[in-house]
Amino acid sequence: MEEDPRLFEVFLDVQRGLPRQGPGSDESTNQAVSLCRGLPNNPVILDIGCGPGMQTVALAQALSGSITAVDIYQEYLDQLKERVQSRGVAESIEILVADINDLPFPHQSFDLIWSEGAAYNMGFENALVDWRRFLKSGGCLAVTELVWLRHDPPAPVFGFLENEYPAMTTVENNLETIRNSGYEPLAHFTLPDSAWWEHYYGPLEEKLPALYEKYSDDADALNVIESTKSEIEMRRLYPDWYGYEFF
Length: 247
Prior knowledge:
Layout: H1 5-15, H2 26-35, E1 44-48, H3 54-62, E2 66-71, H4 74-86, E3 93-97, E4 110-115, H5 124-131, E5 135-148, H6 155-164, E6 169-170, H7 171-180, E7 189-190, H8 194-214, H9 219-237, E8 242-246
Parallel strand pairs: 1-2, 1-4, 2-3, 4-5, 5-6
Antiparallel strand pairs: 5-8, 7-8
């Protein structure tokens, strides 16, 4: 998809209009907030790869501070703008188009860096190393990452995820990467299965019939949609083997 702009647009169409761009929930965001230690009363926060920003709003409601929310796709940021206005938190949130690989901020600018489901775009270790320069001394980072939860996964799910995200590894290996990147792990937890379905896979699955009809004469586009359907089915069949971990 990355090499074919037309198919990437199909991918964006598949994802368009969803409440979230990946697994998560307000409950999980709030749980992660409660585990961040030593934040000032009015923290300066950076939400990287914010998407349509459900977690951005949850952060604004949980913490008295200022948030800069960045994403490379203006369409998602337009959704976020509508969301923050309707929820009455627009004054505390700055919305900015930015590439996570080239963030335009001075060093040591933020008390808290947040990223749900976006670090994999850079690679988990690369993201940790790069983003650390933006943290103030004693600041916190909260990030979710796709992980294996059990060893020796069944061949179908291993093959699918090995193809989709070959860098995916275990919680233990990610904790080691966190330490080696200059951080002290404070806590971690696995997102519940409901966080995959309520605001992400559920709405996404409801879109599929209309997408199959829209692209019925486009075999390449149908392959993109079929891959999405397979991804959802893998989650339905093998939820105990992999998940998103909040570090």
